[in-house]
């Protein structure tokens, strides 16, 4: 389906990227936002999810609250990964790969040192939709931006290499809001491939679904909603898991990052939060 501008309408898993843009647009409109994402409004509006449109109906108050929690987590994780990227370029990294880039506009909104090359990997439909909105907004990237339309369950390393990624140079990889949509074997294979393309000094930022999240949301997930497509959540020991994949990882909880960013979660923890799903990792040297 296309809209009046000839844009493909968001559907399937990539529609979730438009939902994320909606949340970022709302954060950008706040008085003291944790980040400013001026393009988010255009992405959300073009995808029929502008801030003026009502959110999808929720089954009950508990479901509404759960979704407010998801929106909050998107804001916190965006800030977390912005900071991680700032540190990565400060360490000298000049290659950035956004896996499942969706409507991520970091190429346009962050400060990048000269010589930075940023690869956006996602399937062709969202990248086409994004290109159309970027044209409409006359958006200009602040680094060299290269889009790589490919499915991450296929030969994406080949596509990334063809697009100019240099595995001999360190890379900072971001998988934000992505892994939860991939089956376990696809997650494992994705990270093994990332490892194989990561020179010494590479870094990685991941967001992992917290343990139990798939089950908690499944009950009232409407067909086609983001939660209806969630399949994978973090292992019990994410640091050990990533160690086995060649990464020295640190985990952070949403609660502690929110506190650090001056947006404390005011409700008491309902359950044992365990290891956090915000991951900052450095390629192991051993
Ligand atoms: C929730 S969105 C997050 C987008 C972006 N990382 C962000 O945080 O703004 C998930 C994204 O993952 C992408 N994605 C999911 N499965 C994928 C696959 N198999 N190959 C490529 N992209 C995929 C979707 O198209 C979508 O853009």
TrEMBL record:
<dbReference type="InterPro" id="IPR029063">
    <property type="entry name" value="SAM-dependent_MTases_sf"/>
</dbReference>
<dbReference type="InterPro" id="IPR011610">
    <property type="entry name" value="SAM_mthyl_Trfase_ML2640-like"/>
</dbReference>
<comment type="similarity">
    <text>Belongs to the UPF0677 family.</text>
</comment>
<dbReference type="InterPro" id="IPR007213">
    <property type="entry name" value="Ppm1/Ppm2/Tcmp"/>
</dbReference>
<keyword id="KW-0489">Methyltransferase</keyword>
<dbReference type="GO" id="GO:0008168">
    <property type="term" value="F:methyltransferase activity"/>
</dbReference>
<comment type="function">
    <text>Exhibits S-adenosyl-L-methionine-dependent methyltransferase activity.</text>
</comment>
<protein>
    <recommendedName>
        <fullName>S-adenosyl-L-methionine-dependent methyltransferase</fullName>
        <ecNumber>2.1.1.-</ecNumber>
    </recommendedName>
</protein>
<dbReference type="GO" id="GO:0032259">
    <property type="term" value="P:methylation"/>
</dbReference>
<keyword id="KW-0808">Transferase</keyword>
<dbReference type="Pfam" id="PF04072">
    <property type="entry name" value="LCM"/>
</dbReference>
<keyword id="KW-0949">S-adenosyl-L-methionine</keyword>
